[in-house]
Design goal:
Length: 152
Amino acid sequence: MNDSPILLASLDEALALGVALAAVVGPGDVVALSGPLGAGKTSIARGLLAALGLEGEAPSPSFAIVQPYDPPEVRMPVLHVDLYRIEDPEEAEELGLDDARSDSLLLVEWPERLGAAAWQDALWLTLSVGPDGVRALTARVPAAWKGRWPLT
């Protein structure tokens, strides 16, 4: 984890983080977005998807669980995944995310539903909301992301 949290004081700052991430992600990467409802996970994902070329606002994948985006809609294949409704990690196996990862970027909201051992090489971003509404972001930056994490 980063030693001190990064503060995201507005929606624009959450979107800008997504834009910064878009400059350094590629197929095979996993960006795990963790935090309570309303913390800004989808906002970061929307900023990233917009920077990859998506026109219009990306819907939250809460009900679809997996929302795919493919070129030419975006620069690279992306699976925006929301595991909120997954109750057992075995349910997620049916989604085929590990196979899809070979040629897609995975943006995974609620990754903790799969347990701490899932995707050890993922960039793991955890958001919390302070009493003043400011979001605090902490990052677990694995070796695969050293030198690419844009906020160091």
